[in-house]
Amino acid sequence: MTLTNYLVLSGILFSIGAATVLLRRNAIIVFMGVELMLNATNLALVTFSRLHGDLTGQVMAFFVMVVAAAEVVVGLAIIVSIFRTRKSASVDDINLLKS
Amino acid sequence: MDVNSLAPLLVAVPLASAAVLLLLGRRSDRWGHWLGLLASTAAFVVGALLLVELLGRPADQRSVDVHLFDWISAGRFDLSAGLLVDPLSLTFVLLVTFVGSLIHLYSVAYMAHDAARRRFFAYLNLFVAAMLLLVLADSYLLLFVGWEGVGLASYLLIGFWNHRTPYAVAAKKAFVANRVGDLGLLIALMLMLATFGAVDFASVSAGIDGGLASTATLTAMGLLLLLAACGKSAQFPLQSWLGDAMAGPTPVSALIHAATMVTAGVYLIVRSAPVFEGAPTAQLVVTIVGAITLVFGAIVGCAKDDIKKALAASTMSQIGYMVLAAGLGPVGYAFAIFHLVTHGFFKAGMFLGAGSVMHGMDDQTDMRRFGALRRYMVVTWVTLGLGWLAILGIPPFSGFWSKDKIIESAFVVPEVGGEWRAWLFGAVALIGAGITAFYMSRLFFMTFHGKKRWTRDADGHEPHPHESPALMTIPMIVLAVGSAGLGFVLQAGGFTTWLEPVTGHVEHHEPVLPVLVIQVVTLLAVVVGLALAWRQYASLPVPETAPEGSALTRAARVDLYQDAVNDAVLVEPGRHLTRSLVYGDRTAVDGAFTGLGRLTVGIGELVRRVQTGYARQYAATMLLGLVVLAAVVLVPRI
């Protein structure tokens, strides 16, 4: 099994995530799309680590995980608070800054 | 008492009085005019004490420089403020304070019904202080301070009744015309600083003696000083303001626009004698300006029906005589100052007389509406008559001693320059004397002789001319005595010798014609002028409205088109210039900035469209950007 397959899989996963972010309105689902894109990136990073035979890619993947965990916490909190005030989790409804 | 402690008082006392009157305001309304009179009289007493002090000294020690304080001290440049007490400045001090005090006294009665009398006296005191500073200054810079001070006081007093728009406009006109002259003085000051590194009279004189300045520099300096003198003394071509300046109260016209301030230009030229000695061209221009103004003023004076404006034209013409004399060099300096002093007396006296006539005739100034006033105002008639005889130059009245000397000096062939000058300037001065006799007699006869031509009001109220109160007639009488006798007294007392430390001693020069011939011809011209005026304005009836007259009369009535010329040459182009500048400012400069603002707003409008508020669209933009970025990086490598 060549490493290329992993990269292709990573690309497919990233595309699915991006499509989810762009096409879905529900904030939770959009969030899941973001997570999918981050994990696709992680897969690509780990694959490159293997390809180069050093640990740099894996270290980067860990960083991404940490950031993703933090992001999930803050993002979910925001979504919950928006839902409480506006009774909606649709990203298209969040347009208060538009005059 | 010594000179050092007395001299500063001359300026300080009137200045302090002016400050008190202006700062206390209405609280000093009741006694303000008396304080003003007191301050002016005190200055005169100080001046008299100084005169006694100087007369007690030998002639060569009569010049005292009183150091006041170090004014500007910067590196090698050092300027101290000081007063120069010498025969010339002291002559002016006595003239200004004596005539000034009399006019203060006159004003107490003349301005009695004016609510702002106290302010009037404050300005008069301010004027006296500034004028004394002007003549006492020992450097051109301090002189400039006084010069501006009298300009300010003149402006304030011409526009004293500034609730009437034409008066306020007249004040502004005087101010602007004076500024043109002041510019000349300012540039001359800078030129002196650049050439000599100093601006006090002594250093400038020493610098010229030391050959620091070329003839060209001195000529430029002289012409600039002449420009300043023209502005202040209403000489051609800056003369147009003096006639309008008669908008001020009559005592102001008497003091500032006849006796003292307008003669400051003559003072400046005489004081700058070393400069003009080194610049014969500038000197010739001074003489020419004097000659032109002399004739100009005389012609204008013949056509004016307003009594004050006729006197103003006469003032212009008489100062023309002084400037002409000052331009003749050392031969004329002393006579210029001599005529200045006698003129100060008789012209101030005549202005006060005119004020008295106006006082009795309900502020009427049109001479065609006077006539036959001699029976109703005897004191005014006699005092103004003495002034009239003096200005005509009838012996033995004042004017004869001073004006005839100027005419004689004009006939002297100058050291540089051809004989034609003597004939030309002599003839101009002589003809001027004849015209002077005509217009002054015209004024006198139209006012006091002939038939009554008084106006009636709409309700048929007829004026009741009456003699003015004693407070007004006393100054007139004193000035009339001066007009009658001062010339002889000063001549006998050796006035020209007294001035010699400043003006220099001159050997007697023989005119191109014998002195006796000149005197007789002058007197003849005067008598002819007088007789013409008698026939026209005393024996023949005077029409109440001015007849159309010849082309020259019509031109003279509008001051020989001087306002029209100024308007066409200076005012209109200036107005167009400012208008086009404003237009340029609005379109080009303002346009650039508002255009910049509009451009920014427009770009903002465009960019704003991108901000839709849809989070998914932002995400799509980011993704697109990322793809483009990746493509830019990767595509060339493939």
Automatic annotation (TrEMBL), chain A:
Catalyzed reactions: a quinone + NADH + 5 H(+)(in) = a quinol + NAD(+) + 4 H(+)(out)
Domain of life according to the entry: Bacteria
Primary residence: membrane
The enzyme's E.C. designation: 7.1.1.-
GO terms of molecular function: NADH dehydrogenase (quinone) (non-electrogenic) activity; quinone binding
Class of the enzyme per the UniProt entry, highest EC level: translocase
Signal peptide range in chain numbering: none
GO CC aspect terms: NADH dehydrogenase complex; plasma membrane
Quaternary context: NDH-1 is composed of 14 different subunits. Subunits NuoA, H, J, K, L, M, N constitute the membrane sector of the complex.
Family affiliation: Belongs to the complex I subunit 4L family.
Function: NDH-1 shuttles electrons from NADH, via FMN and iron-sulfur (Fe-S) centers, to quinones in the respiratory chain. The immediate electron acceptor for the enzyme in this species is believed to be a menaquinone. Couples the redox reaction to proton translocation (for every two electrons transferred, four hydrogen ions are translocated across the cytoplasmic membrane), and thus conserves the redox energy in a proton gradient.
Designated name of the protein: NADH-quinone oxidoreductase subunit K
Species of provenance: Cellulomonas pakistanensis
Gene: nuoK
TrEMBL record, chain B:
Major localization class: membrane
Annotated compartments: Endomembrane system; Membrane
Membrane-spanning parts: 6-24, 31-52, 88-108, 120-137, 143-162, 183-204, 210-231, 252-270, 282-303, 310-328, 334-357, 378-402, 422-448, 469-492, 512-534, 618-635
Any one Gene Ontology BP term: ATP synthesis coupled electron transport
Ranges where the NADH-Ubiquinone oxidoreductase (complex I) chain 5 N-terminal domain occurs: 71-121
PANTHER family reported in the protein's UniProt record: NADH-UBIQUINONE OXIDOREDUCTASE CHAIN 5
Protein name from the UniProt record: NADH-quinone oxidoreductase subunit L
